[in-house]
Amino acid sequence: MNTLKSISIKGMFVAFLVSVSSMLLADELNLRPGVTEISRSVYDLHNLILLICVVIGVVVYGVMFISMYFHRKSRGHEAAQFDDNHTLEIAWTVIPTLILVGMFIPSYGVLKEIYNTDNAEMTVEVRGYQWKWQYKYVDEDYNNSFSFFSNLATPRAQIKNRQVKTETYLLEVDEPLRIPANRKVKFLVTAEDVIHAWWVPDFGIKRDAVPGIINELWAIVPEPGTYRGQCTELCGKDHGFMPIVVEVLPEREFDLWYQDKVAEKIALDQSTKTQTDTEFLTVSSGG
Amino acid sequence: MSEVVHTDHHDEHDHGPEKGLLRWLYTTNHKDIGTLYLWFSFLMLFIGGALALVIRTELFQPGLQFIEPAFFNQMTTNHGLIMVFGAIMPAFVGLANWLIPMQVGAPDMALPRMNNLSFWILPFAFGMMISTFFMDGGGPNFGWTFYAPLSTTYGPPSTTYFIFAVHLMGASSIMGSINIIATILNMRAPGMTLMKMPLFVWTWLITAFLLIAVMPVLAGAVTMMLFDIHFGTSFFNAAGGGDPVMFQHIFWFFGHPEVYIMILPAFGIVSHILPAFARKPLFGYTSMVWAVASIAVLSFVVWAHHMFTVGMPLFGQAFFMGATMVIAIPTGVKVFNWIATMWRGSMTFETPMLFAVAFVILFTMGGFSGLMLAIVPADYQYHDTYFVVAHFHYVLVPGALFSIIAAVYFWFPKWTGKMYNESLGKLHFWLSFIGVNITFFPQHFSGLAGMPRRIPDYALQFADFNMISSVGAFIFGFSQLFFLYVLINGIRSGKAADGLSWEGAKGLEWTLPSPAPYHSFTQPPKVS
Amino acid sequence: MASAAGPDQSVYYVPAQGWYPVWLAFGFMLLVTGFASVLNMQKTGGSADWTQSLIGFAIVAFVFFRWFAKVIQENAEGYNNAQLKKSYVWGMGWFIFSEVMFFAAFFGALFYVRMWVVPWLGGEGSKGIVGDYLYPEFEATWPVVSNPNPEIFENPGQSMAPPTLGSAWLTYLPFMNTVILLSSSVTVHMAHMAINTQERGKLAGWLGFTVLLGIIFLGLQVFEYYEAYAHMGLTLSSGIYGSTFFILTGFHGFHVTMGTVILLIQFFRVLKGHFKEHDCFGFESASWYWHFVDVVWVGLFIFVYVL
Ligand code: HEA
Ligand code: HEA
Ligand code: CUA
Ligand SMILES: [Cu+2]
Q1: Which of A25, A61, A101, A107 has the highest number of chain B CBs within 10 A, making it the mutation to test binding with B?
Q2: Would you call B216 and C105 a contact, using CB atoms and an 8 Å cutoff?
């Protein structure tokens, strides 16, 4: 019975150490570093705090397990009767305080950086709808701005398990948000109906999209590529089905795409306009 | 049902209760009411747990297998609500009812009839809430945090019933707390000064204060919702000059103290069990009391750490980050005190002790992840992912729930006069301990990998973690059914227990015979 | 032992089991579910059926009546020793604290809106971009007489703001109400003094006068609401100003109504000869409640009307 006990206690300890160290070692178990400067600082911050917690944990649990192992009645240990010790008590109030101050300072540094939305080179309005995103490229000049919706592209058959799920299952859209690499892009995040949240883990940014309110967010992405995220605020039935896909294009490529988009929009505007014009004409001549 | 005009003459005090159903409906006895609370919360644990198992079943694999997204949201919402308001809180109130009069040397609670009212409101309130499942448009589906405007403009029609159910639960909690405070402040045995009170009593005194301070604020929040829905106001609508985020401020002003309401009595329980099985006095009694008080005070100024992503001004973010981190200090003091209590003791590990030790270990883990969440830039990555789910289940399940289970085992002999079967108890512990970790540890990983909360279906990279978690959930759920068996087995065929059921137990309740007499202390004992 | 000398004062009286609590809980349930279904019906344009909530209300009122009568009777028979009376005092004190926190939620909403939300919507402060981008027309003023989106929330024509200082204040209705309510605090205190000296006539007089003041206050408030709805265009749905105004004054008014009813019941008890010197918990708690309602009004007057 005793050996059983000590085995299980040791087992608990070992299991804890294994799980924690595996978390630190194996990349796929940890937070992702992401691709922006911000996301990397957040990643470092995360590792720092996690490490501090693990160290404190090892000390705290270590003392605890030593006590549970040696100070057992079954080992004939007699109970001491002390019930306070002022030096100790002061120490374990002051030391954690210092540790916390040590955590606060770098955290505040990163936070301030995240809040600095100055000097953005372009602005995109991100608007959440039940259950899709709308991206609007904002420009003073109406003819230089345009917008489109971004819907889930995963077929229903995959969701209903009637078709094999592809690798980007639930993380794919019909038209992704496109932004240029290396430029500071400002996002104005808002919503149409209920609260959503716009999150791209690899950029290290997340902000709630609140109807009637604007939140500001920014990113500079050095590497072109496709980055995926999800809505992270419960927004009703299809909350799980409104992914975010951002395609970061090399600057030149982006500018070309942008011009195309603007031209497309102007053409569309014109055609709807002429259409209504002709309609008007037919109606009036008919009458 | 003729009116009971005869009053309870004290020479009848030793007579037992009346028989039958009416005893439970009409009772004014703190033990009866405590029993009602405890069984009610156990039932709610099973219902809330069954909903959790539905969630875990759906999340076993990617794809929609069993339920539709709209129903999934109702599961999540009601799981959270039922566990918080139906299982954990009533269980603590039940323990308070059973234990506080015995621990302070009182004959009963201060206001026995109101005590009965506090309990009986609950079945009606939860009846209302659960009945919404069967209404047109379904039950509440906006998360246990019911953020506006999802719960106002976009809520199902049953929201109105939900709002009134919350009002009733609030009234029940407030009356229960008033009763507890009056009992503690007014009915202590002569000689029991405040700083001689058992820690469970202390923690409940402070918890009751928190409840009276924040439940009305919750009532205010749902009242504003009611007005936004039915009377055209615009509290949570920017078009009329309000703000959806204001709802969150008000909700979390209630909500954060609420989570400490679910942990402070647990601290008290553990502070009784550890010394009893270490056979050593509690280390640092005074600092324990101060720590609980500081946690309670701090809990009023940290609420916005649930809202780091709503877009508060920088100063606000920094303030709430700092204030939240400070809570680690008094909580640390408690953890260290517990360990110092165990240090150089003469420990045995009966079931209550096992649960209490597991509490200290796993609650601390939950505390660590809480601290990580408090770091604002990092919270941008964690917020509304399974990392948060992992955090709060660590503090709530092996935290609050384990402490309740520990308390049930610890005081079981005092309540029933019988001893549960120790081997079965230990088996229950190991199943629960293993189950809980299999369920919730992998959720840290799925969270860090980026899985959002409250989704019925997920991307493929989260599949393994979810499968493990679902298996764990069934192990854990099964072991709670086993708990029910252990209890019934103990009540039916347990060995008779002594008055002092545990060698190292201290406190007035252990001076009473087991089972404790119907009226605890008809004449107040003297405390030196 | 319960002897001719009456109950033993050294024993804390634990009442026997009774039917009031369960029935009260049941009554509450009927009341609120009935009300909920009425609200839902009205919202969908159906015809509302009040029967169930009225039954619920009747049960609640009946049980309350019997319950309080029972407590009064027990006290008269001498069951309540000094310690038990103290429990009642603690109970009432903490109940009032919970009411304070209930109002705190609404005051909190008012402060938050005025200090942050309205400026942001108007393009000021750290989140001024909200206003600049979404509501370029909207200007941050308090009272908000022109809403961010007047198409959804119709603008109130006028607010309840006070006239500039001067003799006009004497006819400023909220000011009159302040005077009335403050006086009623004094009169209820006079009644309390009269209990301690057992001058029954004075007691009944002051208490009756207090009730009267309460009723006048309520009458004036009803008039104010009527004016708001009929002539000022200020309603619950006229944006955040109307919302905060009506919820704060409305719940306060509801509390005044409750307080008046409670005081009225105390008045009838006075006529029946209740309340002895230093044994008048029913009266005292009613008067504490009244003072509390008064203090809340002062807060309202300052923050809702004047500032
Ligand atoms: C019993 C309930 C309980 C308890 C006790 C706690 C305790 C804590 N919680 Fe938790 N929390 C919840 C229940 C609880 N929480 C719930 C339910 C939610 C989610 C709600 C929802 O959205 O649905 C939540 C969410 C939540 C968030 C929001 C996350 C998000 O949504 O993005 C945050 C952020 O700061 C947080 C922080 C903390 C902190 C700092 C503590 C601290 O009190 C922990 C302190 C303890 C320790 C730190 C460990 C012991 C200390 C030592 C050994 C000393 C030395 C240590 C150091 C110096 C590091 N919690
Ligand atoms: C307060 C305490 C508490 C407790 C004890 C639990 C217990 C459990 N919780 Fe939960 N949980 C919350 C509070 C709690 N939870 C909250 C507040 C939320 C947030 C809700 C929200 O997002 O709004 C949440 C959310 C939540 C989620 C996230 C859902 C989502 O985001 O979509 C998950 C997923 O795994 C989960 C799982 C579990 C599991 C497996 C258990 C297990 O411990 C349960 C174990 C099971 C049992 C004890 C039942 C045993 C029953 C049987 C074996 C069947 C027999 C049935 C009958 C007889 C009827 N919980
Ligand atoms: Cu949109 Cu969740
Ligand atoms: Cu919190």
Answers
A1: A107
A2: yes
Among residues C34, C51, C75, the one where a domain terminates is C75
Say how far apart CA C278 and CA A231 lie, in whole Å.
64
C7 found inside a domain: no
Ligand 2 atom with least separation from CA of B73:
32
Give chain C's domain count: 2
Give yes or no for a contact between A148 and A129, defined as CB atoms under 8 angstroms apart: no
Give the pLDDT confidence of A91-133 residue by residue, as tens digits: 999 999 999 999 999 999 999 999 998 899 999 999 999 999 9
Mean pLDDT calculated for residue range A201-216: 96
- pTM equals 0.94
Instruction: Report d(CA B302, CA B330) in Å as an integer.
Output: 14
Coil, strand, or helix at residue A215? strand
Asked whether residue C62 falls in the same domain as residue C144, the answer is no
Q: Inter-chain contact A188–C130, Cβ cutoff 8 Å? A: no
The answer to whether B502 is a known catalytic residue is: no
Who contacts B506 (Cβ-Cβ below 8 Å, separation ≥6)?
B275, B276, B281
| Nearest residue to B37 (alpha-carbon basis) of B2, B84, B87 | B87
Distance between Cα B213 and ligand 1 center (Å): 20
Name the closest residue on chain A to residue C132, using Cα atoms: A214
Q: Is the CB of B362 under 6 A from ligand 1?
A: no
CA A234 to ligand 2: nearest atom: 22
Q: Which of C8, C42, C75 is the last residue of a domain?
A: C75
pLDDT the model gives residue C157 = 80
User: Can you say whether the dihedral through the CA atoms of B350, B352, B358, B361 is positive or negative?
Assistant: negative
Which residue in B67, B452, B467 sits closest to A243, CA to CA?
A: B452
Q: Quick one: C235 and C220 in the same domain?
A: yes
- Do C113 and C172 have their domain in common? yes
C56 in a domain, yes or no? yes
User: Can you state the angle between helices B314-326 and A86-114, rounded to 10 degrees?
Assistant: 160
**Would the CB of B106 count as within 6 Å of ligand 1?**
no
Query: Pick the catalytic residue: B228, B258, B379, B509?
Result: B258
Same-domain check for residues C88 and C184: yes
Enumerate residue ranges in chain B where pLDDT < 50: 1-14
Complex prediction ipTM: 0.93
CA of C124 to the centre of ligand 3 (A): 29
* Domain match, C201 and C70 both: no
Of all residues in chain B, the one with the smallest CA distance to C16 is B8
Provide the H-helix boundaries in chain C: 20-43, 51-76, 82-112, 118-121, 129-134, 173-196, 200-227, 239-271, 281-300
HSE, side-chain direction, 13 A CA sphere, residue B197: 25
3-state secondary structure of A127: strand
Give me the residue from B25, B161, B241 closest to C239, CB to CB: B241
Same domain, C202 and C271: yes
Using CA coordinates, name the residue in chain B closest to A230. B452
CA A1 to chain B, closest CA, distance in angstroms equals 11
Specify whether C246 is located in the same domain as C215.
yes
- Residue B260 appears among annotated catalytic residues: yes
Domain holding C20, by residue range, is 16-75
Record: contact A212-C148, CB cut-off 8 A:
yes
Give a yes or no: residue C257 inside a domain: yes
Q: For residues A201 and A182, is the Cβ–Cβ distance under 8 A?
A: no
CA of B104 to the centre of ligand 3 (A): 51
- The answer to whether the CB atoms of A188 and C148 lie below 8 A apart is no
C216 falls within a domain:
yes
CATH number for position C127: 1.20.120.80
Taking 50 as the pLDDT cut, the residues of chain C under it are: 1-4
C100-117: b (≥16 Cβ within 10 Å) or e: bbbbbbbbbbbebbbebb
Mutation target to probe the B interface, by most B beta carbons within 10 A, among C17, C147, C229 is C17
| Domain match, C62 and C102 both | no
Q: Whose CA is nearest to atom 50 of ligand 2?
A: B477
